[in-house]
Amino acid sequence: MKVSIVGAYNTKFGAFVKRDRETGQIDDQKSYYELLVEAGAGAIADAGLEAKDIDAIWVGSCSPSLFLNQEHVGPLALEIDPEGLLFKPTTRTEGACASSSLAIYNAAYAVESGRFKNVLALGVEKMTGLDTAGVTHALSCCSYWPDEGANGMTFPGLFAELGKAYQQKHKISDDELRTMLAHVSALNYRNGIQNPLAHFGPGSLPDKNQLITPEAILNLPDSGKGSNPMIAAPLRLHDCSLISDGAAAVVLTSTDNAKANFKYAVELSGVGHTTDRMMLNGRLGRLDELQATRHAVKLACDEASIGVDAWDFVEVHDCFTVNELLCAEAVGLSEPGRAGYDLMEGKFNPEGDCPINLSGGLKSKGHPVGATGASMHALAYKQLVGEPIGVSAKNNPEVAMTVNVGGSGVTNCVSVMRRIQ
After folding, report:
1. I need a labelling partner for 395 at 20 to 30 A (CA). Which of 68, 126, 257, 389 fits?
2. pTM of the full structure
3. What is the overall mean pLDDT for the chain?
4. pLDDT score at 334
């Protein structure tokens, strides 16, 4: 694909509400609308453009209607600059947690077609205005509702099924799997507390409580204050990503235009977008791996004419710790059943063979679902152009991969990103 990212911006991720526990009243400290505008304006400025230079906009957002009673969100992007963007086409994309990767891909296809010169793709979600039950319901609507959400199956429950299938397939004991998953959490917490934009960034709970080693997480009690209770076996509280607010955006143009007119350019050298059956019972017998993700990786690598040895770092979709293991194997960093062992040996540490989630990942950076894909691309772009936010990738990185998954391994978006300028 001859399309490049030439600017990017990521808002801070966090819980931008203040809730009165006695009255239940919520004070919205940073709204969906403010996050969207901040990210979009930031990316345009980072590219050295003005709003009038943007020809079209794609907005990825998972469930604004359930989170804040707002639909038809594409036109809200005009508020980035009402005069400069007036009458420009806007389109909303939705693919659960991969919503904004889809925004980027559709924007890239539009550039590749020659229809538009400069486009803006952004992702945004505001989740914390709802209580836990409300968030659980909204997210459950991204499952196969008749058999899953309607019957009380939550996303921790869905990924727990993947985890149990993985554990059984590779004959991993309960204690061994728990240790592996604690290593995932600890790695992401260590990276996240160095990311000033992360929900669990500097001064956050993992930082204050020093939850930066697997031993610290394994030693947490099962109940009470500061505990790590079971949510859906084998997944505990510290195996689950965060309920977050945030936004991120990128500006795309043709690679030829990027080389001629922009300071930096990171090409989307290859993309893979695949879809698996939504319902888990339609994938029985193959829940121990992310087959559709693996296929998306192959498509992206084939298009980019690149292999696993070329990646300098990878951002993967660790919505739950077990999915980081599944993603590592799907992209070829580990053999089937070996990701947990490779992780414990330090292969995915910042100084390891191929660092994973230098940003802190969904587990620590945060997971405002509609913004996650755009955030992966934005922060990878910043790493590749020498402006890292948080932990720096080693050895002047040139090639990265992002792996963004929507639903329980259903919508899979894989990007090979290569610095060309």
Report:
1. 257
2. 0.98
3. 97
4. 98
